[in-house]
Design goal:
This protein has 166 residues and is an alpha+beta fold. A hairpin with a 2-residue loop joins strand 1 and strand 2. The strands form two sheets. A four-stranded antiparallel sheet has the order 3-4-5-6, covered by helices on one side. Strands 1-2 form a two-stranded antiparallel sheet. It contains four helices and six strands; from the N terminus they run E-E-H-H-H-H-E-E-E-E. It starts with 11 loop residues before the first strand and ends in a 7-residue tail after the last strand. It has two domains: 57 residues, no CATH class; 80 residues.
């Protein structure tokens, strides 16, 4: 007949510890904030949980940013999307070569999503600075690959005005 376990130790069945009703010291230490229901202790516990969630989010966001760097680099001022955006603006009579200072053109890739094997749909914010001080802002959408930024035509959306924010 096997010897019964000493008082306070969980029973062992064929070399496996069976959890007892009493929490271990480690689990009590880990969740110490839950044993005292004071406002200060609970607020620390919630703050710690929020911090852990934010850190996990930041780590996943950083990993996503690293994956996104493998997308085609089509964000230059002379790239396909901004060049065709200007052509569309010019054809619509909204811009003119003589009125735009191309050295101040700013292009920011807002999104790039893989839609096929080495095929990505990209969204860019393009700002053309006029010599008069004005800015013409457009959003572009086109498909690109690592080999060509011009895998499709460019859809151009004119930003007429900003409301709120920056």
């Amino acid at each position: 007949m096997p010897t019964p376990p000493a008082a306070g130790t969980p029973p062992v069945v064929q070399g496996v510890r069976v959890p007892s009703d009493k929490p271990s010291r480690e689990s009590v230490r880990r969740f110490a904030c839950l044993k005292d229901y004071t406002l200060t202790t609970l607020s620390r516990c919630v703050s710690t949980a929020i911090l852990l969630v934010v850190l996990a989010w930041a780590a996943s966001d950083s990993a996503h940013a690293q994956r996104a760097t493998n997308h085609p680099a089509c964000s230059g001022a002379e790239a396909w999307a901004p060049s065709l955006a200007f052509v569309h603006l010019k054809n619509a009579g909204l811009a003119d070569n003589d009125k735009v200072d191309f050295t101040k053109t700013k292009v920011v890739r807002l999104a790039s999503e893989q839609i096929g094997k080495d095929l990505y749909r990209q969204i860019h914010d393009v700002k053309f600075s006029e010599k008069s001080g004005g800015v013409i802002e457009v959003m572009t959408m086109n498909d690109a690959s690592h080999e060509e930024c011009s895998m499709s035509g460019v859809d151009v959306f004119i930003v007429s005005r900003h409301l709120g924010g920056r």
